[in-house]
Write a structure and sequence with these properties.
72% of the residues lie in helices and 0% in strands. The chain is built from 13 helices and no strands.
């Protein structure tokens, strides 16, 4: 049975402001009364923030608008939750978060909200980066690289670091140089594998992946999207193998590698 003091929480907001206030009120009550919510901290909620963001991106990739609406709500929940935690600690609240973001957007788009003009997207992005660097009081280019979030997927983070370094001219002239670096790092990785030192193998594998990301950047290919596509393709082909073996009365687990390879080639050709 609905508690009388919470009846108004079951009434949907008629606009974004009312809806956001409703969610904020629910979070405050949960922080006060729910055993799980009471003990959460910024640290314990880190993984939740990451997971919800990834799930929202996955919904975008799948073009699932119904799921995207739900996942964006989950992301918003994390924003409200973290804001409430900070409010309890006397640092900032949800209003501060929203207003600061509004001010940032106004400040970083003078070509829209002021009388300044830019002619190209590249110039607008350059101005954005310069303003961001100034706001963060970055005193060197190294600081710009260091502030690329470590929580980003490794491929994406390396691409962003490379892109920032390229802005001062530290880059290959074209993709040919980047391809040459891949061949060099592959050779070094093979040498490390033959030597058998795990630390060296790990280091050289990292260098090889970093050089492959560099090629993807020159070709304007998202390395995360490319690798995710390869993974989806692998799963689809594996599913074909499993279904095909079952239809033929075969047990995939008992098949030899040679037999599985034949099915794999069938999957590639279908």
């Amino acid at each position: 049975m609905m508690k009388k003091e919470y009846e108004e929480l079951y009434i949907a907001g008629t606009d974004a402001g009312e809806a956001l206030n409703r969610l904020a009120a629910i979070i405050k009550i949960l922080r006060r009364e729910c055993p799980w919510d009471k003990v959460q901290t910024h640290e314990t909620l880190k993984i939740c923030m990451l997971e919800e963001a990834y799930e929202a991106v996955d919904a975008i990739q799948e073009k699932d608008t119904a799921n995207l609406r739900e996942e964006l709500g989950d992301v918003l929940l994390q924003v409200v939750f973290h804001s409430d935690l900070s409010s309890e600690e006397g640092d900032f609240d949800l209003t501060d978060v929203i207003n600061e973001e509004c001010e940032k957007m106004l400040r970083r788009h003078p070509h829209i909200f002021l009388e300044e003009k830019v002619k190209t997207i590249d110039k607008a992005l350059e101005r954005w980066e310069n303003m961001k660097s100034k706001e963060h009081n970055e005193k060197s280019y190294t600081e710009r690289l260091q502030k690329v979030p470590r929580a980003l997927p490794a491929l994406l983070r390396s691409s962003k670091v490379q892109s920032k370094a390229s802005k001062i001219g530290f880059d290959w002239e074209d993709a040919k140089g980047a391809f040459g670096k891949v061949e060099e790092e592959l050779s070094e990785f093979k040498d490390a594998c033959e030597a058998g030192g795990r630390e060296d193998m790990t280091e050289e594998l990292g260098d090889l992946l970093f050089s492959i990301v560099n090629v993807s950047r020159f070709l304007d290919i998202d390395p995360e999207e490319a690798l995710n596509g390869a993974t989806r393709k692998f799963i689809a082909r594996f599913q074909y193998m499993e279904n095909a073996s079952a239809e033929r009365g075969l047990d995939l687990e008992r098949m030899s590698l040679e037999e599985m390879d034949k099915l794999w080639m069938e999957a590639k050709n279908n």
